[in-house]
Amino acid sequence: MPKKNIVVVGAGFGGVFAAKLLSHKLKSQKDYDIILIDKHSYFTYMTELHEVASQRVAPQHVQEDLEHLFYQHKNVKLLTAEVNGVDKSKRIVSTTQGDVPYEKLILAVGGQSNDFGTPGVKEHGFELWSMEESLTIRNHIENTVGQGAAELDPVKREQMLTIAVVGSGFTGTELMGEFIEQRKVLAKTYKLDENEIKLVMLEASPQILNMLKDRKLADKAYRYMTEHGVDIRTDSRVTSVDETGITFADGSRLATRSLIWTAGVKAKSFISDWGFKYGRGGRIEADDYMRATSDDDSAEEHIYVAGDTLSYVDKTTGPVPQTVEGAENAAKTAVINILADLGLGSRKTFTDVVKYHGFAVSIGSHYTVASLLKNINISGFMAGMAKHAINLYFYSQIRSAYSIFNYTLDEFFRTENGRNPFRGTISRLGNVLWATPLRLLLGVFWILAALGNLNTGMNDLFWQQGIASFLELIVGSGLILGLFTWPLGLVSIILAISAWAMNGFDVIHWFLILGSLAIMNGSGRGIGLDFFVVPLLQKWFGQLWYGKAKSYYDEIHK
């Protein structure tokens, strides 16, 4: 007897979460297969694409192969194909790989950027709604700023070095926050003054982050961005885009070759003729049980909706937001009611299921505003930690422990240029973090040696008087603080060799010599003052000796 298919279209958050939940609930039901259809063979963490676009993380950070996600779920079958339509009477999903019959169907095809028909956006702008688009932005920004640094014409130069983001919602704000940090890296790479790279945020309404109920959080975000050089222009409606820049409703212009449009979200356009009732943004309207609404206003008995495909207004929490929690709440409601259709449980409405934990908007890796649970509003470092906790929670819903481990490494330990909440002090790319405990141990050892507080046998191996004792105190204190670790490591080696020569060999001398050599790799930058002091000294002495590098020179006319 052939198995019955429960088909999920779309491998975004809503679709993957629904497929995982169905797989678990139907594990003992051998009559059913879950078919997950998507045009890609991987899942993309859509809410982190801004980190890829701005070169904070590698593309694989936000990408997970579907086979990895579902390898242990033997009742889930994957199909990489594009969906052409749905035959509701025959219960068939038509795809580029053939027809797929379904017993129940969940449509979670996701969304796309909504440019509201603004002329020139698609031809001359960029959108951030897929891995491909994020990589296009990543390459474009790098190349355009590089070309701008070499451009001598001041008009063209300014145009190339201006980056504009249209829309101040979650996506636009988070992307702009990343550009704030990437600007430092680009300026250093191409020998630019950081202020030459202009960041402009454009918002048609009078205020930014309009979805925030607490305007104090929005004000903090506004203040942080403006203090970091972002030109925020509200009441600025874009009417057209061309290859040289942007035109506004009042006729004014902004010259740029880098416009990223994040001003709206709508459902994928290919579902528009599938015979459903469509709401705002072309989304499929659903009833309280997440069943799709037909064009005659009746509920589809076998078709459910989740994610950015869904249009639904909950009577207690309002419209379902285009967020991960919104997608997962809708997917969970759909799964519960599909199971009820199969005789496995009772029906529940979206109101019965919905649960929001809050949200956090990161403005780069160093600053975040967050509204959690029941009006717990925080900002800064702790809000950033909350953002990562929320991300890890969502990861735990659909991804493996290995993926969570790699997320932690990518966000905290594999970052470059100080782009993590700890400003790079715990980055393992420098191979210094794991030498920090050794550095601290050596520091404590030298202080105890100076004070004569080692055990009786070891006291005889070191000096506790005069200049030697003073040097031991300096070395110990400096190593604990992580200040001037390289020269103090060298002094530590000299002290150990001197003690060896004066008092005879002991294995502790080898430990001190080799341990001191190990921490000279820069371990003072791992939770130490060298992280701040050494770059500052390098900058000062570097400019004193070599001057300041520029992207072009005109010294003969000075």
From TrEMBL:
Chemical reaction(s) catalysed: a quinone + NADH + H(+) = a quinol + NAD(+)
InterPro entries per the UniProt record, alphabetical: FAD/NAD-bd_sf, FAD/NAD-binding_dom, NDH-2
Membrane-traversing stretches: 432-452, 473-501, 507-534
| Enzyme class, broadest EC rank | oxidoreductase
By its UniProt entry, which Gene3D superfamilies does this protein fall under? 3.50.50.100
The family line of this record is: Belongs to the NADH dehydrogenase family.
> How is this protein named in the record?
NADH:ubiquinone reductase (non-electrogenic)
